[in-house]
Amino acid sequence: MKVAVFISSRGSNMQALVKACETEGFPAEIVTVLSNNPEAAGLDFAKKHNIETKVINHRDFEEREDFDAALGDYLSSKKIDLICLAGFMRLLTPDFVNRWRDRIINIHPSLLPAFKGLHVHERAIESGTRFTGCTVHFVRPEMDDGPIISQAVVPILGDDTADSLAARILEQEHKIYPHALKLIAERKVKIHGSLATIEGASQPETSLSNPIADL
Ligand code: GRF
């Protein structure tokens, strides 16, 4: 499976995907790392790993449609099968998303459908919820929407700041994103309407409480 990873800055999830794809027998190959931001730090990492990098700067386009058309042309030229959004901070047009339906996935740092959008960690802490996490999902035209492939649950601790929480969640992101990619590349993920199911998935049997209910 030929994969393009889209980033806008740091690219730590992209790095996790690259490292996974470098392991022997991994069923996907990252053909290109694309950024809308020429300064994205993650581009250097990709170059060092001999992966093609491409900058398509959204500022060079007046209309969103033209930017997305440039993305589409480039992806076709590379015969890309799947797009992994990894901290890509541009909203794609519904036309683009529909054309690539079921072939774009994203990682979001909350347990969707809770806390869509930005500033998720601040909002999660302020809400008082005891757990948050991260989600890998197929992309639909609406932001942070689409069939869920994988989630990890992360506790919110009493002294958490947005930064400490983000770091704890990021560790899980780096596990579930490569795993979700592997499942898709192995054709184990099936989409039924708004739901995705995983063939042969091992599921956890333990439940958690926070605080721990240790009566
Ligand atoms: C991650 O938290 C991801 O869930 C969100 O944006 C952040 C990107 O971080 N979509 P990185 O660029 O992958 O380090």
Structure description:
By secondary structure, this protein is an alpha/beta fold. Helices cover 33% and strands 23% of the residues. The chain is built from 6 helices and 9 strands; from the N terminus they run βαβαβαβαβαββαββ. It has a 7-stranded mixed β-sheet, covered by helices on one side. A two-stranded antiparallel ribbon has the order 8-9. Helix 1 runs parallel beside helix 6 (162-185). The termini are far apart. The site of 5-O-phosphono-beta-D-ribofuranosylamine (GRF) has 13 residues, from helix 1, strand 5 and helix 6.
Q: Name the helicity range.
A: 25-40%
What pattern of helices and strands is seen along the backbone?
Answer: EHEHEHEHEHEEHEE
Number of strands: 9
Helix count from the secondary structure assignment: 6
Global shape = globular
SSE blueprint and pairings:
Layout: E1 2-7, H1 12-22, E2 29-35, H2 42-48, E3 52-55, H3 64-77, E4 82-85, H4 94-99, E5 104-108, H5 120-127, E6 131-138, E7 148-155, H6 162-185, E8 189-192, E9 195-198
Parallel strand pairs: 1-2, 1-4, 2-3, 4-5
Antiparallel strand pairs: 5-6, 6-7, 8-9
Helix pairs in contact: 1-6
5-O-phosphono-beta-D-ribofuranosylamine is lined by residues 7, 9-13, 86-87, 107-109, 170, 173.
